[in-house]
Design a protein that fits this description.
256 residues, single chain, 14% strand, alpha/beta
């Protein structure tokens, strides 16, 4: 068994996932960096993590390929040791923003396949192997990166919102099932974060944040989420599980 915590972070070749992987590496985690394919972007991410002085491997696999989850986890553990931590970060947006009357079945299925179904079944595969063996005396957790849209409707992205709401409920269900095994589960719900995915609209949201949409008058950065997830995965919120954490600078605080 590994002497150090080992984390798989899905969708970690860029954006929030890469920031999470870097933050975990900073806490001494060995890291499996995931992307859908073994490409230059994944290799560059692995190099960035390796520069931090921790064991790291590339874990190229499509999270929607449910049948391949076990083999992917086996390959990671063969190189890094037994997994302690899963961060479900991989996600997709809508194919086209617009009226929900025009949402296509393709866009709906894509959002649910990645954002909810893959998260559920990869968590299942990860948890099953933890439950099947004696675990080292390290903190074990699943951290799901969902969205503030699990709660608040974005009218032009209704299928995305629905998929993130489903993922948020999966987080609660996992927390209930795994609590008696002392495996913590958290749901981190980012708000306005500057990434490649939000690049087309982030300037407009930055202006709205400065005008009061968020209580802190700024948009968030991937490092903000990375620091938060690393704190959770390191067990620095002891005696907690099932938490939903709105990482949105207070955007959804009710106010008049």
């Amino acid at each position: 068994m590994s002497a150090r915590p080992v984390a798989l972070v899905t969708g970690s070749s860029r954006g929030i996932g890469l920031a999470v992987a870097e933050a975990l590496a900073g806490q001494g985690f060995a890291i499996a960096v995931n992307g859908p394919a073994e490409d230059a972007e994944l290799s560059a991410a692995v190099s960035r993590i390796a520069a931090l002085g921790v064991p790291v491997v590339a874990a190229p696999f499509d999270v929607t390929g449910i049948a391949g989850h076990e083999a992917a986890l086996d390959a990671i553990e063969e190189k890094l040791g037994t997994l302690t931590t899963l961060v479900n970060n991989a996600g997709v947006g809508v194919l086209q923003r617009g009226d929900m009357m025009d949402v296509s079945e393709e866009s709906w299925d894509r959002c649910f396949s990645v954002n909810a179904k893959a998260l559920f079944f990869l968590s299942q595969a990860f948890a099953r192997r933890l439950l099947a063996r004696k675990r080292p005396p390290l903190f074990h957790s699943i951290v799901n990166i969902t969205s503030s849209n699990a709660v608040a409707v974005a009218e032009q992205r209704s299928e995305y919102c629905a998929s993130k709401a489903a993922a948020a409920m999966v987080s609660k269900a996992l927390a209930v099932r795994l609590g008696r095994e002392e495996i913590a589960v958290y749901d981190v719900q980012p708000g306005l974060i500057a990434t490649e995915m939000t690049a087309p609209v982030i300037d407009a949201y930055r202006e709205r944040a400065e005008q009061g949409l968020t209580l802190f008058p700024r948009v968030g950065q991937p490092d903000d989420i990375g620091t938060l997830v690393a704190s959770l995965a390191s067990g620095r919120l002891p005696y907690t599980t099932g938490l939903t954490i709105p990482a949105d600078a207070g955007m959804l605080v009710p106010r008049f």
